[in-house]
Amino acid sequence: MTPPSMLRMAEKRKRQDEENNHSESPNHKRRRVVQNGGSYGATRDVYDHPSSPDGESSSPSRARSLSSSGKRRQRAKPTFSQSQSTSKGKGKEPEKPPPLMNRFFSRLFSSQPASSKAAPPNPFSSQPPLSNASSSKATSSQPSLSRASSSKVPPLQPSLSRASFSDAPPARASSSETSSSQASSSEASSSQASPSQPSLPNASTSQASPLEPLSVKVSPSKAASSQAPALKVPPSNPSSSRPPPTNVGASSSRTRIFTPEETERITVAVETYRDKHNMTQREVNDLIQKGLGVGRTVVDTELKKFWSLVTATCSGKPRQKVIDFCRMRFHNFKARGGHWTPEEEEQLAQLVAQGGTKWAKWSLVMNRHPRDLRDRYRNYIICGSNRASDRWAPEEEEMFKMHVHEALEALEREKAAKPDNSFYDRPLDQLIDWQEISRRLGRTRSRLQCMSKWKKLQRRAEST
DNA sequence: TTCTCTCGTTCGCCGTTGTT
DNA sequence: AACAACGGCGAACGAGAGAA
């Protein structure tokens, strides 16, 4: 059976499911569009889990989407995370293990040295009873409010800061420059501060850091190596460090690094290998995922042959790109995009709390793609029950702007101190560590929320 | 009806770290 | 040194809810 025909089968089945489940979540619909490009992972129920067809792989997601949609329609209700009060309690921010690399911005907030990797606390573990979003926000804002009132830093006008630096050519941080942040990560200091009582710290704990002096530390070795940072070629769009999309205007405007032709060649190569070795697609998928969580380097000769075969179909692409591409598309994990159940989130939180961020390892436990685990954790679970999803309160917004303003000021000082360092040529707000801002807000907002909020504030300021 | 805000989710890109 | 996995950023998308 050819992939297109299998995909059509999958599409047909999904359409039939839709007819029986009119309440499919919007994300499912969108994903289907995306997956039209062809993903064995996306259509895994064609190949895999014969004992768990749609009913098991998709229906839970749909069931979840029902509740999710309902939740989102009732904005006043607690968010998913907030609704976990019975099982999670008041969430202390489940600080991630100290990112060994971090944007150097992190250290602007902290003078504490980075600790070694440690398992972050479980945000779902026993914690004080959950308060609602507004109360958690109020709690988290108190220390900073006092700071705000005493601070000489006025509320930031987003457009101002941006305008101040936006004419500088963007330049990506060199590895040496960014790695200098390892000297001190606030995430590190946070997790280091309370490794033995992961469940107790709360927003107020994380708020203590705003009162710390803004200091900058650069390890000598890193500083020395940062003299000549390697810069990427500036993109055509000077306001962004990212290259312009290659398919702007396409129905799916996401940048595609692999053309349909390349995708087809890869698919053919995989199928050829599969047929030649009399394997099932599931077995091939497992082969492609082989190495994940089992060691860091592929030593399997047969696997090397396989990758040589596949990567040869895209000679212009870096080998690792091809491998990543395949691992995103050929897998036996649970269909990507499925909504997360509270049980899954709790399980992931527990796994991370117990063993750290071993995504490949946990992917085998949870039957979720490692990147799904990673993204879910860092975007949502890390906030635990603190995260609010309602509109930003004015005072919360001011607090947010104050933190961003502080960060930009620190960046300005850094830039002034290193005028020759092209790392600072890009708009400074592009150097902001939103994870850190989120932490400073007491995890009442995720990094994505913070990032999005900043952009909205900018748009708002620019339109007025 | 239109616009704005927010959401959940996916994934491209780049850098760092660890293993062989 | 090469490779593989991981970490981090942030753009993109479609959609719902509510305000204008």
Automatic annotation (TrEMBL):
One GO CC term, this protein: nucleus
Keyword DNA-binding tagged: yes
Biased composition (Basic and acidic residues): 14-27
Keywords tagged on the record: DNA-binding, Nucleus
Listed Pro residues bias regions: 235-246
Record's subcellular location: Nucleus
Statement: the UniProt record of this protein carries the keyword Nucleus: yes
Record field: compositional bias (Low complexity): 50-69, 110-151, 168-204, 215-230
Molecular function terms from GO: DNA-binding transcription factor activity; transcription cis-regulatory region binding
Main subcellular location: nucleus
Cited SMART domains: SANT
HTH myb-type domain mapped to chain residues: 332-385
Protein's UniProt name: Myb-like DNA-binding domain-containing protein
Superkingdom of origin: Eukaryota
Domain Myb-like: 332-381, 384-458
Region (Disordered): 1-262
